[in-house]
Amino acid sequence: MDPVVLIDTIVTQPGEENTIKLYEVPRGYKLKISRVAVYFPRGSGGKVKVAIMRGNIKAYPDNGYFSGDGYPVESFIEKEFIDPDEINLYYKNEDDIEQLFTYVIEGYVEKR
Hints:
By secondary structure, the chain is mainly beta. The chain has a single domain, classed as Jelly Rolls (Sandwich). Helices cover 0% and strands 65% of the residues. The protein contains no helices and 8 strands. The protein has strands spanning 2-12, 17-24, 29-39, 48-54, 57-60, 72-82, 86-93, 99-111. The chain is elongated, with a radius of gyration of 14 Å.
């Protein structure tokens, strides 16, 4: 098993909605995500929505989106992605000002 850690800070423009590619599961492998954390700065007012996608289909959270204000939203999960799955990050800024958030996705990749 090889660990995988995906981490970045995204700055979103007012009203921006986007999906970005984070990781493509290598041929003959599977990725198991064990932890997802999203950090929203104080003052963000829950106006930024974030979700993990399997291609174009929402994979996590099962209901709603990650959203917060001044605290991390963290989940310990067991989500499996199999080649050729693409792990994407969806986000939407519902505010009229620039917002940012930081995500951390941890897991491991292993042969199928």
